[in-house]
Inverse folding.
């Protein structure tokens, strides 16, 4: 099966990024939102990102002004589900809520052509649970992109026990056509990256709680000792402590292992509304965003 037309559900942080890379790779892309104002926001974000690509030289992935216009021409926003009818693949990136996602899939299942592939970009919800909302279980997969989508190369291609081989191969090849590096994984909560990353981040918090080192020293140790681009507390504040806290619940629920459980300090920060960079404080204080200072916790 050849993919020509791509549908994207949701034009938020991830949906707009997925739509943009689709159009940059030459696909016609239709993005669905609940209201025009969310489309406007998402398209403004894409415009900004494309402008940055246009400033780069071609050998560094840059695009010409003409290419930028062509990419824009391939992108269409809509608030009408019927515009997705002739898509070959529909990638869902709406809010991380299982009921909302299932409602969405059920509502478009009869509308979108029968052999189209349905994909979800969910970070934590079971792909198998989502496919139960449709009559196309064998044509359903996970395509887990990373933020910011236009820059991050990885896509986890998630297979369920119901996924047909040819659907999986098509989706894997599609990720490659987007210029990404796909990895194969199965429908276990957290897939590969969060399965390994989340316990590491939670362990960093536990190490701090136990007095192993200060936040700054733990961050510096992992940066300089392991060559990581940023330490665990800096990364936690980037990801969002509310998001991480939510993921700990889903993962703990799945595996019932302490390594996936939230340490008390993470819970306290979330209860206090200290979500990290996005709320101005988390493990660090961002009053001066250029010079974050560790909070006394
Ligand atoms: N943010 C990340 O770093 C990240 C990384 C990988 C995967 N994800 C996953 O991607 C998905 C989206 O996350 P996000 O960060 O882009 O969220 P977001 O809040 O930025 O965007 C979600 C968008 O979906 C729209 N939406 C909600 N209900 C809708 C509906 N019924 N129809 C159409 N649009 C609808 C909202 O208006 C919003 O614009 C989630 O499943 C999340 O787990 C997020």
């Amino acid at each position: 099966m050849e993919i020509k037309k791509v549908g994207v559900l949701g034009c938020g942080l991830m949906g707009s990024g997925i739509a943009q890379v689709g159009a940059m790779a030459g696909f016609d892309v239709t993005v669905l939102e609940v209201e025009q104002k969310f489309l406007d926001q998402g398209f403004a974000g894409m415009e900004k990102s494309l402008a940055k690509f246009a400033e780069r030289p071609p050998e560094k992935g840059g695009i010409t002004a003409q290419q930028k216009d062509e990419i824009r021409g391939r992108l269409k926003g809509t608030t009408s589900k019927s515009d997705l009818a002739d898509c070959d693949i529909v990638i869902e990136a709406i809010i991380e809520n299982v009921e909302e996602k299932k409602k969405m899939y059920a509502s478009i299942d009869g509308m979108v052509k029968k052999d189209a592939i349905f994909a979800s970009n969910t970070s934590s919800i079971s792909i198998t649970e989502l496919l139960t909302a449709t009559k196309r279980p064998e044509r359903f997969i996970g395509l887990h992109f990373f933020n910011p989508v236009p820059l991050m190369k990885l896509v986890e291609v998630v297979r369920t026990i119901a996924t047909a081989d040819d659907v999986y191969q098509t989706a894997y090849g599609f990720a490659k056509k987007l210029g990404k590096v796909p990895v194969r994984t199965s429908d276990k909560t957290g897939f590969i990256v969060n399965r390994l990353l989340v316990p590491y981040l939670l362990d960093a918090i536990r190490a701090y709680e136990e007095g192993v080192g200060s936040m700054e020293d733990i961050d510096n140790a992992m940066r300089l000792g392991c060559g990581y681009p940023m330490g665990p507390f800096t990364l936690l504040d980037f990801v969002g402590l509310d998001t991480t806290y939510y993921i700990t619940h889903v993962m703990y629920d799945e595996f019932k292992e302490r390594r996936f459980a939230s340490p008390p300090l993470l819970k306290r920060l979330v209860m206090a509304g200290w979500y990290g960079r996005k709320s101005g404080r988390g493990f660090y204080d961002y009053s001066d965003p250029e010079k974050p200072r560790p909070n006394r916790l």
The beta strands are 5-9, 28-32, 75-78, 89-92, 117-120, 140-145, 154-159, 181-186, 284-285, 293-294. The two ends are 55 Å apart (CA to CA).
